[in-house]
Write a sequence for this structure.
């Protein structure tokens, strides 16, 4: 005989995790006078002060950066001096934008192995030739030997959209003007304010069909967020930005087998993150080039009627500290919720050439 089984109990609901604090540097074209650690430390102090915690109170720390920018292996270990790694801490690192570090920390908190996490990212693009450095992310057999830089690849993507009839140069100028005009309200932006679109179109081409306004600024910067779970998040923050869903997907490495006018990885990540289940009022898109905003809007079915405020911070066209730009999109979206200016927001991050790898997060305010 078998023992009588008792009534089955429903599994506990999944843990809820929120962004409870966000801080970033003032992004500048050159910070030669400061090391990565000196660039990062004020941001770490600021983000922890917002929630009245110290580094010793944090259960898990995760960072995102790129050794290619620093020009030395394991450069992230030096940045740990800004955090304080003694006594020993629980720490991890991703060789990617900090948005992916946030994803790792989010998973850690979901498992219940931590209640709080510090996530940070930084990049000093001024240390070398950024356009040359980023060619190293290409396929090493077919593309990298040709040295096509990100601007050249973005020009190909932009021309494909124009040939398809999905956009034109005046529309791209309007995207640039809107983003950089929005950045006038962002004290951390590297570029803020813009001439009218017709004046932008009078400028010389940088690489046809791209003009200077179609491309992101090159600069240095850092950002950090604090994550917390459940009641800890409510204790630390009056209006937590709850991460209701987050997912990331990657497309083939070879540009020749991709449709550069579409982003199926963004669409799939958004679906798995629950983005299409309800409307959003804010979208922070990691679109370093104007044409990439066109691609992302189409993939996400974002309306053009102003119902969704896109890049109120100015986006990557206003500040693009490589390896921190995606994390900043998450932080900016969360800040809108912290301030009561958004109820449901989308944050997007990208990595690789022509929107190869994409992460989408859906943030929500506390239900009323």
């Amino acid at each position: 005989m078998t023992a009588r089984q008792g009534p089955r109990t429903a599994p506990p609901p999944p843990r809820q995790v929120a962004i409870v604090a966000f801080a970033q540097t003032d992004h500048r074209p050159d910070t030669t006078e400061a090391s990565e650690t000196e660039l990062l430390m004020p941001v770490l102090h600021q983000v922890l002060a917002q929630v009245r915690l110290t580094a010793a109170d944090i259960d898990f720390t995760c960072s995102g950066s790129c050794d290619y920018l620093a020009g030395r292996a394991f450069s992230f270990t030096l940045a740990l001096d800004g955090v304080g790694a003694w006594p020993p801490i629980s720490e991890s690192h991703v060789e990617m934008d900090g948005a992916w570090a946030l994803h790792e920390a989010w998973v850690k908190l979901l498992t219940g192995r931590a209640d709080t996490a510090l996530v940070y990212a930084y990049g000093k693009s001024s240390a070398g030739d950024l356009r040359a450095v980023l060619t190293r992310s290409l396929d090493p057999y077919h593309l990298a030997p040709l040295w096509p830089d990100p601007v050249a690849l973005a020009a190909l993507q932009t021309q494909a959209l124009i040939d398809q009839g999905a956009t034109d140069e005046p529309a791209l100028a309007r995207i640039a003007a809107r983003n950089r005009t929005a950045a006038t309200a962002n004290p951390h932006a590297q570029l803020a304010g813009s001439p009218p679109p017709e004046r932008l179109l009078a400028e010389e081409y940088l690489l046809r069909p791209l003009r200077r306004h179609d491309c992101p600024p090159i600069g240095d910067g850092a950002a950090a967020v604090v994550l917390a779970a459940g009641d800890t998040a409510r204790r630390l923050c009056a209006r937590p930005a709850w991460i209701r869903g987050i997912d990331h997907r990657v497309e083939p490495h070879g540009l020749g087998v991709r449709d550069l006018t579409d982003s199926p990885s963004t669409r799939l990540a958004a679906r798995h993150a629950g983005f299409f289940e309800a409307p959003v009022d804010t979208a922070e898109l990691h679109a370093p080039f104007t044409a990439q905003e066109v691609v992302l809007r189409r993939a996400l079915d974002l309306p053009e009627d102003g119902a969704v405020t896109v890049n109120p911070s100015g986006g990557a066209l206003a500040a693009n500290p490589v390896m921190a730009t995606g994390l900043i999109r998450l932080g900016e979206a969360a800040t809108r919720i912290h301030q009561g200016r958004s109820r449901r927001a989308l944050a997007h991050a990208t990595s690789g050439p022509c929107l190869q790898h994409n992460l989408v997060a859906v943030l929500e305010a506390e239900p009323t």
